[in-house]
User: What shape does this take?
Amino acid sequence: MIRPLTTMRLPPALIIGATLTLTVFAAALISFVWTPYGFEEIHIADRLQPPSGAHWMGTDHFGRDVLSMIMVGSRNSLAVALVAVGIGAGLGVPLGLLAAARHGPVDEAVMRANDLIFAFPALLVAVMITAVFGPGAVNAIIAIGIFNIPVFARVSRGAALSLWSRDYVLAARTAGKSRARISVQHILPNLMSLLVVQAAIQFALGIVAEAGLSYVGLGTQPPMPSWGRMLSEAQTMIDFAPWLAVWPGMAIVVIVLGLGLTGDGLRDLLDPRVRRERGR
Assistant: This one.
């Protein structure tokens, strides 16, 4: 007998991952109402101070508090990745469901379009967009979002194809339901657990992509802090002020590790085979 999901012991990976992820999200939310110092406050007399009681993570070459910049930078990185994943899922999932439902020329057209997008990495798309519209967070969102579309399209299409031969789908077709209605009412609900896990993975990759774009100057622009740009600025001072690179690097590691563990934990929790094994 399989126990209800609510009575099961949560996977350790999910607990650890959710804790790390929620910690970063909490820091981002708190930064809207409080930071130890203003992230734009410049105090030249306090420049390049190591971590201390006054500045827990030290100060940068302008005397700005690193902890305050990390907190504000977290909301920028999370917002860019979250919106980009939303764009990818919002466009990619319907395309994948359409390809699985229609087959033939429609399926071929969707998959070849996905192959075309995969040929241009997010960084290259960002460079092309920047050449036309200039650098910025919005352009980073567009670049990462476009790259996420074929990921969700492929995942949803592959999973949906395996569901179209199920008995409940055949029964719905016999009852006269259209392919679009079957996709929404029967296929999509059964894909949600897979899509949630994939979203967590793409969210982590979006964080890394945003940091990479900011590192080369194509992401969030000054005066708003960004983890990637903080790393870029710290590389010339790493010999005498290593904390400038350590803290933003650790922030990226924590959120990516947290989201990765959360995705693994959700997969273990939502996978029916794992639930059956734990219910024995």
